[in-house]
Each structure stands twice: as C-alpha cells, then as structure tokens.
Design goal:
With 560 residues, the chain is mostly helical. Helix content is 39%, strand content 6%. The protein is globular.
C-alpha cells in the first residue's frame, strides 16, 4: 500500500511538472496581422494606396526592356532596330501571340491594380477612421481601378469587370463590352474627381482632383462623349494653379537651352520645384522619397529609358572605319549617356511631322531632338567637327542603331548621379549608367490642352480645337495651325511633337482604334511585318481563357 501511495505521489508530481512545461512552451501571440485586422487604421490604408502607386510604376517604368516599352514599340513612333525576335513588335504574328508571356504580364499587372483597389474599397466599411478619410481612400482606390480598366480596354477591348474583393478563385468570368468597361471607369473617375484633394494640397507624386479630371476627359473621349470630355478638360485647364511653363526655369535655366528642355531636367518635374504644368509625376530620381536608386547595375531595378532610346554612338563606322568620334558612355548630348540604340524613331516621327508643320519648332531644336553631334573624342580625326544626321558623312546610313536623331528627354546630360560617373571631370560614365534619372510625367497640362482639342474636333468645332492646339504650339514658338490643318491625324501628329517618347503611344492609338492605320499606312514603320487590323487589340491571354473553366472567356477576333 505504501508502495502504491509512493508511486501515486511520483505520478502526480510528474503530471504537474509536465503541465508546467506545457504551459511554459505554449506560444501566445501578442500581436499579428490577418485579413481581419490589416485594414483598420489610416496607416493601413496608406500602405495599400502606396502599393497601388508602386504597381503603376512597375507596369510602366520597371526594369524590363520588353514590358515597359511594349507601349511604344511597333507603333508610328518607334521601332526596334536591334532585336528582330518575337517580343519587340516587329513581327506581329510572333509578338501578338495569346501565349506571349510579355503581353500576358500586362493583363496580370493591371488586374492586380483592380484587385488591390477592390480590397481597399471593401474594407472601408469596418475601418476605424473618419468618414471623410474613408471618402478620400475610396476616391484613390476608384481612381486606380479606373486607370487599370481604361488601360485594359485600350489594349484588349472589352474585359471582365470585377468590383468586389475576391477571396477565393473565380472561374466564371465573361467579357463585358468595351462601352460597359468605359462607363465603369467614368463612374469611378467622377467619384474620384469629386473627392480627391486639390492639386495644391498634395505631395509631389500623389494624385489629385486634376489628375482624375484629366483621365476622365480621356475616357470620355474613348466613349465618344465629346462635350463631357471637353468640360472635364476645361476644369483642369481653368484651374488657376495649373499653367504651361513658358519661361526658363529649374536646375539648368542659366545654361544654354529652352523651356521645353527645362521640363525634362533633373529636379524640374514637380510642383515642389515650381513646375505648374505637372499633373501626375512618377517619382524616379535617386535619393528622393518614392524615387529609385538604379545606380548600381545596368541590369538592376531602374527604368532603362536612356539605355533603350539613345543611340550606340560607340560603334559608329564612317566609310567602313570605326572612327569612334564620340566618347561613350558620357553625360553629354552628343553621346546620349549610355544608350544602346534599341529604339529608333520612325522617319515619320523624326522628320515628316516637323517638315509638315514647322522645322524650327522649339521641340525640334537640337536641345530636344538631337541631330547634330559634336565629336568629343580627341583621338578621332573628326574631333571638334559637328556631324549631322540630316547630312551624314559619306558612307553613313541614317538611321542605324549606332546613329539616329533622338529625344534628349530620355537622358540627363551633365546631371547623372555621382555614383555612375567613372570620371565626373570629363563626364565619362561607368557601365552602371543607362537608367532614367529624372522623374517621369504621366499627365501634364500640355496633353490636357490636346485632349480638349480632340474633344472640340469631336464636337465639330475646329475653331475651339485650333485655339487649344495653338496654346501648345505658341509655347513651342511654332507657327500657329489653321482650322484647315485640323483633323484627328493632325492632333495625333501634334501629340507626337509635344509628347514623343513620353507618351504611352499604344494606348492613345488603341483608344482611337488606329494602331494599324497609323503604324502601317501613315508612318510606314519600316520593320513592322505581318500587321493587320486585328492588331489594334492584343489577344486575350490564353492562360486566362484556359483557367476560366466555368464560363467562356471569348478571344478577340482573328486570334486562335
């Protein structure tokens, strides 16, 4: 009995000890994030909105040399003079394939914006923030949702509309009509324009009431609501806090140049720098809040605008001899930074639009559309001479990847970050250069004037259209246009003159259904082949059609 009691005692002690150990080892979470508590405070929603800004930048200004330049290659603006493969809009049979991973990525990225926006909107009802804050966050989310749907419909036509937060996978999507998608974007933008803060109340890089109205005008145009488009653009233009820059300003105003050149220099794009023309600016400068630091590796995270757009002057041959008249890479207009000449302007962009309008247009000056290159290599027999793409040396073909006119807005001559100079005294750059180092305009006021001109044309009022176009042309010291000049092609030409490589050209032409006509019949893009009317739209990604097993997601006409 005593033995049994003793055994019982030891058993009891063991149980107590084991229990104590169990309690000691039990983890109790003091704080954690879940879907239920992640959208409560203003800080939570700020982070989610910041992610929307990041998604837009990732779509339009990422490090990819394919994805980001899909918006300009293979149009009336630019062709790929370096790569003859399937991904750069030379051979449309190959590029516009429903299984093309680069094209499919745009669909995925844009629907990520939709999904993130929907989540923000859905979670506002239970958030611990004021009603006024809720309205502003809703306005921001609806702006980005509209921005994504507008882009999707310009690229693909009618697409599925999803307005709710999706918690589990859905496989029954069907396409809405293009008109329905545009109507949804219009409704979202009307809400955004009524509830976003004024442009004077935002930080550089943020969106405002004017940002929403600018985009609203464009979407109204896409929906052929010309009076509404005109009125929305007018609200932006008549804002006393917005005006075109007409005098030299900014970081290089004391140096040779002009006001159009100033618009694209480092530190000059934002309202905080005195730029009253900026409506929405993507922050990209190094060492700035919301900016980028693509200075360590040319194949890093930065937007490779300079690398893709500027010519590869290092490899220029004259009479079959590699004479190397230019130091490359160098932070000068003649070298263009560290360009490799992938993107060559069509003859229509580099010459025709200026010859048909005004060759002395400020936007066509050598500060802005570089055609005259001064040899800066002391070892070259051409040292000190000016070589002109309009009158090239014997044996030199223009354009080639090594030499062609280019827009200086792609680079920052004399203003590269210190970290990418091999020798700052001579402006010699290291191999790490090649990105953009200036902030990038998504919307600016000059474009708003051209949107309103397009709306006036749609209203059959060429007088009003002429007035708006000439506001832009007057700033450029260009000859005013007449009413007889104006049709949609003239406005598209003026957009080329004013916006150039800054514009996401495929979106403009897609909005108008003129990708094929302008690329093939107007600009005669020299490397485009196998392009047809069907290529006004991209194919619906095959992967999306395949996984949508509970409904039919129809393909665009002409695609298998």
């Amino acid at each position: 009995m005593k033995q049994i009691l003793s055994l019982s005692k030891y058993l009891y002690i063991s149980i107590v000890l084991l229990s104590a150990c169990s309690d000691f080892l039990k983890e109790e979470a003091l704080d954690f994030k879940s879907t239920d508590n992640s959208f409560v405070t203003s800080s939570d929603f700020d982070k989610s909105v910041n992610n929307l800004f990041w998604l837009v930048r990732s779509e339009f200004y990422s490090a990819s040399e394919q994805q980001t330049f899909d918006y300009i290659f293979g149009t009336d603006l630019i062709y790929d003079g370096a790569i003859q493969g399937a991904q750069r809009f030379n051979d449309f049979d190959n590029t516009c394939n429903p299984s093309n991973t680069y094209l499919n990525s745009h669909w995925t990225n844009l629907y990520k914006i939709v999904a993130e926006s929907n989540t923000i909107i859905a979670r506002l009802s239970t958030a611990s923030i004021s009603d006024e804050e809720k309205k502003i966050y809703e306005a921001k989310a609806k702006f980005f949702r509209a921005f994504a749907y507008r882009t999707l419909t310009y690229l693909y036509g009618g697409v599925p509309i999803e307005l709710d937060e999706v918690a589990i996978p859905k496989k029954n999507y069907v396409r809405a009509s293009k008109e329905d998608v545009l109507e949804q974007a219009i409704e979202d933008l009307k809400f955004a324009s009524n509830n976003l803060p004024e442009i004077t109340a935002i930080k550089d890089g943020e969106i405002s009431k004017s940002t929403a109205l600018h985009l609203l005008s464009e979407v109204y145009l896409a929906n052929k609501q010309y009076k509404e488009a005109y009125d929305a653009a007018s609200e932006v233009i008549e804002n006393p806090n917005l005006k075109l820059m007409t005098e030299r300003f900014g970081s290089l105003k004391s140096e040779p140049g002009d006001v159009y050149y100033d618009l694209f220099r480092v530190n000059n794009q934002n309202r905080g720098s005195g730029n009253t023309e900026a409506i929405w600016v993507i922050q990209y400068e190094t060492n700035t809040i919301g900016g980028d630091n693509g200075t360590t590796n040319v194949y890093g995270s930065g937007y490779k605008l300079e690398r893709v757009i500027a010519p590869l002057v290092r490899d220029l041959y004259i009479d079959g001899e590699k004479t190397s008249p230019f130091i490359w890479p160098a932070s000068t207009l003649s070298s263009g930074g560290r360009g490799v000449g992938f993107a060559i302007p069509t003859k229509y962009f580099s010459n025709t639009i200026w010859e048909n309008s005004d060759w002395n247009d400020m936007r066509n000056s050598n500060y802005n559309f570089v055609r005259k290159f001064k040899s800066d290599n002391p070892k070259s027999k051409f040292y000190g001479q000016v070589l002109d793409t309009e009158n090239p040396p014997a044996g030199v073909t223009v354009p080639t990847r090594e030499w062609f006119p280019y827009q200086s807005k792609c680079t920052t001559p004399g203003q590269h970050p210190e970290t990418v100079y091999a020798n700052i005294g001579t402006l010699l750059l290291s191999g790490n250069a090649g990105f953009t180092y200036a902030d990038q305009y998504l919307f600016r006021l000059a474009e708003t004037y051209l949107l309103r001109a397009e709306a006036a044309l749609g209203m059959n009022d060429k007088k009003l259209a002429k007035e708006d176009i000439n506001v832009v042309r007057t700033r450029a010291n260009a000859t005013p246009c007449t009413e007889d000049d104006i049709d949609i092609n003239y406005i598209l030409d003026e957009r080329m003159r004013e916006l150039g490589i800054e514009e996401k050209r495929r979106l403009t032409l897609g909005r108008l259904g003129l990708v094929y006509q302008r690329t093939v019949e107007v600009a005669h893009n020299p490397l485009v082949r196998n392009m047809e009317e069907k290529h006004n739209l991209w194919p619906i990604p095959y992967a999306e059609i395949e996984r949508n097993t509970d409904a039919i997601l129809e393909q665009n006409p002409g695609y298998n």
